[in-house]
Amino acid sequence: MRGVFIAFEGGDGSGKSTQARLLADRLDAEGLDVLLTREPGGTDVGERLRSLVLDPAHAPIDAVTEALIFAASRSAHVRQRIGPALEAGRTVVTDRYVDSSVAYQGAGRNLGPDTVAGLNEWATGGLHPDLTVLLDVDTTTAAGRRAARAQAPGGTGPDRMESEPEDFHRSIRTAFTDRAAAHPERYLVLDAGRAAPELAAEVWGRVAGLLERAAGLGGLDLDGLDLDGEAGR
Ligand code: TYD
User: Fold this and answer.
1) 96: Cβ below 6 Å to ligand 1?
2) What's the structural domain count of the chain?
3) What is the pLDDT of residue 65?
4) Is residue 227 part of a domain?
């Protein structure tokens, strides 16, 4: 009776955190038991690793060290939170997962996508999302969103990754879309330049299908859920 595992991926400023939250809210409104979590982070040790690796005061961190810190945070996340939640039949929505490392460290930091994917197979014990939603946005739009976010009241300055030049963000975008193209059945790629409610509706359409299939396989108890209707919109 394993739960369904959904990851949101995309560059900085792609709007994936908003979409992850909208999906978690919708699942919750449908009466499903949801864990919404994020990387780096998701556990006490993971949150500490997050501030360590993203703090601009710590630049530069060597690329291999950086990849290992993200993988360590992920390993804790899988073993302490994601795995147990799935075992308990909960639906897990994570804001970033392995593909972020493959894109940022594998492509952005030039460690090689295969090397970083291999490291993460070990770190996660081979746990893959049932669906990855990739919010694909052109680098100019994403840079504009990051700048707006930094200037908003209470906004923070760019973290270590966000401060990287445009080329870095371009290589990341390509790495994400390459990964999705290699396994189209496990991905939903959306043009993140579109309005948030439109994107959320498309995400829901795909997730509802996934939940129905899981229920058909005996993976979930969906009795009484309104998967096509208006509930929770
Ligand atoms: P995120 O939480 O999405 O940033 P924000 O809170 O600003 O939206 O991610 C933090 C940064 O860490 C982001 O620039 C991407 C980077 N990152 C990696 O480089 N590798 C990884 O494996 C992960 C999970 C994130």
Assistant:
1) yes
2) 1
3) 96
4) no
Q: Which atom of ligand 1 is nearest to the CA of 38?
A: 2
Cis peptide leading into residue 153 (ω within 30°): no
Instruction: Please say whether the beta carbons of 135 and 9 come within 8 A.
Output: yes
Residue whose CA is closest, atom 16 of ligand 1?
161
Q: Give strand ranges (E) for the chain.
A: 5-10, 34-38, 91-95, 131-136, 187-191
In a domain, 224, yes or no: no
Indicate the pTM of the whole model: 0.91
Q: What is the mean pLDDT of the chain?
A: 92
- Highest average pLDDT, of 126-130, 142-146, 168-172, comes from 126-130
Tell me if 107 is assigned to some domain.
yes
Q: Is the CB of 161 under 6 A from ligand 1?
A: yes
Look up the CATH number of the domain holding residue 31.
Answer: 3.40.50.300
pLDDT in tens, 215-233: 887 767 677 677 775 544 4
CB 74 within 8 A of CB 80: no
Q: Is the shortest distance between the CB of 70 and ligand 1 below 6 Å?
A: yes
For ligand 1, say whether the CB of 130 is within 6 Å of any of its atoms.
no
For residue 229, the CA-to-ligand 1 centroid distance in Å is 34
For residue 228, tell me if it sits in a domain.
Answer: no
Ligand 1 midpoint to CA 104 (Å): 8
Q: Separation of 204 CA from ligand 1 center, angstroms? A: 24
Q: Are 100 and 133 within 8 A, CB to CB?
A: no
104 is in which domain, residue-wise? 5-216
Do the bridges between strand 131-136 and strand 91-95 make them parallel or antiparallel, or are there none, so unpaired?
unpaired
The per-residue pLDDT for range 9-55, each reduced to its tens digit, is 999 889 999 999 999 999 999 999 999 999 999 999 999 999 999 98
